Structure formats: C-alpha cells, structure tokens
Amino acid sequence: MRLLSPLRSRLRPRQHTVVLDLDARAVLLTVRRHPRARRIILRLAAEGDGAVVTIPERASFDEGITLARNHAGWIARRLAAIPPRVAFEDGAVLPFLGQDHRLRHHARTFPAVRREGGEIIVAGRAEDLPRRVADWLRRQARVEIGARVGDKAATLGRAPGRITVRDTRSRWGSCSATGNLSFSWRLVMAPVVVLDYVVAHEVAHLTHRDHGPSFWRTVAALTEDVAGSRAWLRRHGRSLHRYG
Predict the structure, then answer these.
(1) What are phi and psi of 4, to 5 degrees?
(2) Which ranges in the chain are annotated with CATH 3.30.2010.10?
(3) Which CATH class is domain 133-242?
(4) Mean pLDDT of the chain
C-alpha cells in the first residue's frame, strides 16, 4: 500500500457532501477524512438530519458513499425513529433539567423569562420568543455548570481555567491542556444527574488527561451515576439537538 506524504495528505479534500434518495426522502450525506481513522465508520449526524461517514486518509469519497448506500435501510430506520424538531414557540414543550416545561408567551410580564409551575413564561414580542428562550437556556446552563465545576474542582484541589458554554455538536464537554472547560448549553435540558456526570467527567481531566482506571475512579467520586448517565446520553442525547 502506498502511503501519502504529510503534505499530500493535507492537500487532499477533507470533506464531500452528497444527497441520497432513501425511500423518497432526501438525506444529506457528509463524507469526512480523519487522520486517525482506521476504518470507514457510518453514523447519523449529531443534529439528526442526515448521515456522516468518516473515512481514513487512504480511502476515497466514493468508498464512503458506497458504504452509506449499502446501509440505506439502516439510515432510513434510524432517521425515522428520531423525534421531530421542536421549535421554541408558544405552547411547545421542552425539558429543563430533565423535567418537561411548556413555553408560554405573555406580552407583559416580569422578568422577561421566568420558570413557574411547570411553565417557562416569556415576555415581549412573539417574534422574539425563540431568541429569548435560547438566551435564557444558555444563561441557566452557565449557572448550573459553573457552580458544579467550582465545587468539583475544589474537591480535587484544582483550579479550572476559563469555562465556556457553546452549542457543540460533536461532544458534550471538553477540557483543554491548559484546563479550560467547554460544555454544550443543551445539557441544561438533560436530567440533573446527566449534566452532573458530564461536568464531573471534564473536571476529572484536570487531574487525569487519559481515560484510564484512575480517571474513572475520580469521575465516580465526583458524581452519582456514571453508567446510567452514559447510557442516557447514548439513548437520548441526540434528541437534545432537536430543540430550537
């Protein structure tokens, strides 16, 4: 097998997109090269609207497309099982810390967004409701995540770096080599124990950079239900990207 030089490898296109016709449904397929990929891997896109094929450097885009076409039935079944998108609008139901809440628009109320009796009540113009709800959820995520980072880092005797909250798609959290922590704001919609686990996972990386036994013992000491939280994210995590 002829190996590509690092320069030629960088010059090769990194991504290619095509539209597949699956059971009369147009599905966007993205084929991506990854330098550490050892085989071709098919998965659904994080947002649940298409599919992604990851290929090694030596593979061609056509190989990735062929794999997807050969598994068209799997893609169609998985996409059909994903709940429909839920827009941020009056009357919609969305989870907050794992509990369903109904969005209600009240033109005149104070504060601009408040949570009360199983409802999230939003003031102002109706057309501003989606933005107000998204901004409120991000603020709540910062509060919930920031408090947990502080407590867990103090338990380990570590000082975290900058904490950022973003709409990440590929991972729920990350910890940089300098101790900066990043989280998906959508975790604020997950059950409290799941959010707590993700924070514990990233804070544990302040002490352990790998995922060895010592790392997992540290995570278990910082949160309640590691196995259950990981299972919840595998089963339901993708649905959090269906809101908004």
Answers:
(1) -80, 145
(2) 133-242
(3) alpha beta
(4) 92
Residues 6+ apart with CB under 8 A from 160: 149, 150, 153, 179, 180, 181, 203, 206
- Spatial separation of the C-alpha atoms in residues 68 and 30, rounded to whole Å: 10
Question: Which pLDDT does position 21 carry in this prediction?
Answer: 86
| pLDDT value for 79 | 87
Which pTM value belongs to this model? 0.77
Percent of the chain at pLDDT exceeding 90: 77
